[in-house]
Give the backbone structure.
Amino acid sequence: MKWLVTGGAGFIGSCFVRTALTEGWADRIINVDKLTYAGNIENLEPIAHHPAYGFVQADICDADVMEELFAREAPDAVIHFAAESHVDRSIHSPAPAIYTNLNGTFTLLEAARRSKVARFVHVSTDEVYGSIEPPHEADENYPLRASSPYSASKAGSDLLALSYFTTYGLNVSVTRASNNYGPYQFPEKLIPLMISNALDDKPLPVYGDGQQIRDWLYVEDHCRAIRSVLEKGAPGEICNIGGNCSLPNLEVVRRILRATGKPETLITRVADRPGHDRRYALSSAKLTRETGWEPAMSFDRGLEATVEWYRHNSQWIRHVKSGEYRQFYELNYSNRTV
């Protein structure tokens, strides 16, 4: 089996590629990544010379390049991670999220349809469901209530992917996962931002009252769930992937401070994000029932492993905090106070 993975230099995509090659999930993996700010080729260093690995630097929105790539490689399956995935960035500048997440997905679906690809997994997010009042959890039939340009663009790309099953018979599945965390995550997301700031004794910016609730999923658990959907998921269906670990953001920050041995005085309250969803909550019952998948990593064990990885990879952190990210970080996070 030959798999084409998009966004395979990003956080989740690179974990999927590393795990798949290390454990022999596929005979060959072609990784397509534009290498924007969140795509780091260093994430793939452990498997860079693997004989079953190939890398192509390209933009998924470039239809001519994608058509040629699909014709040349003839993949058996596409696992589509590539996206503009940061909510704050989509609020400050929505155009890249709309363009990449919608047009890029369309370009890939067209290339897959023309090349008669046997399987297409579109990787999405629980943010498409919007804020959910307790005690409810979103199953796959829950209404879409996207509240940011990012989540709206992902909801649109989900529907577009599913339409290719209905209209063209393309064997598409859509996955919607809760918040991921783990090694190699770009430090604009909550957990890596707080870990890297704590390790450097810098303020930890917490939006509003910090009581926004998120479900946390260790990245390797997510990758194994995607494999389960790829191999066992029903065509034209959605599968939620949750970590069964709902916590307020402030509690997550406090656990990070305990894990790093830093004081809570580093917590700094900042003005809340516009349209900030209060609670995300997913039910993974369908995925467990149909494939047998369940998350294996507890949050505390996963957080400890993540803190230790960042503690021992300071050079990686310094590298990704350079250039474009440094400008964005300094503008939006570094000096914000109540």
Residues 325-338 have pLDDT under 50 and may be disordered.
